[in-house]
Amino acid sequence: MQTFGRFKDFVCTDDAVKSRLEKLLKTLDQWGYLHLSNRDTLIYQVTGKLDYFYQALQFIKEHEQLPITQDEDDVAQESLF
Question: Higher pLDDT residue, 2 or 50?
Fold first, then answer.
């Protein structure tokens, strides 16, 4: 959640986790990655656009040879699992 909060489209003025999650889900819905299938229970469905996004990332990874570094936050989160 903190990583997404760094991007301008995911900025939330409220520090509550619930508010930040709602902003994240709403933005992904607006971009077409999610679809709100039940407004009462806030159930979302993932669209096929997410598969396309992962395919594009895989293509870039294979063909562009971009250096990928791991932040300290990622290492700390991995240790939680």
Answer: 50
